[in-house]
Amino acid sequence: MNNKTLKLVATDKRLKGMHLRVYILLCVCGALTQYQLVELLQSQKQNINKYVKELESWGYIKLSKVEGKNKFYCIEKDDKRIKQVLMGQQDVFDKLL
Question: What is the pLDDT of residues 13-72, one digit of tens each?
Fold first, then answer.
């Protein structure tokens, strides 16, 4: 992950504490399941599911593989994809370029 990506993550006002915790864990650990995130963050499954779905819809993480019923999520490493997501927040996007 490069500095531009970190700036995009740090300035996105939609991201709250738990979003960032999930994102950081995926950065550090690589691909994890929602169950693994629940265990590591000691949170409820429905809460982690909400944060994972939001991060995925915002383009920060993606589904990397499925093994049986286990879905593994990892960070989106494509800066262009993240920039496309942030185009709606034009003022933040302009400051970063």
Answer: 888 899 999 998 998 898 999 999 999 999 999 999 999 999 999 888 999 999 999 999
Q: Which regions of 1-97 does DSSP assign to beta strands (E)?
A: 32-33, 61-67, 70-75
The answer to whether 84 and 9 are in contact (CB under 8 A) is no
User: In 10 A of CB 38, how many CB atoms?
Assistant: 17
Q: What is the pLDDT of residue 37?
A: 96
The DSSP code for 16 is -
- According to DSSP, residue 43 is labeled -
Pairing of strands 70-75, 61-67: antiparallel
Note the pTM of the prediction, 2 decimals: 0.78
Neighbours of 75 (CB within 10 A): 23
User: What is the arrangement of strands in the sheet containing 70-75, beginning at the earlier edge strand?
Assistant: 32-33, 70-75, 61-67
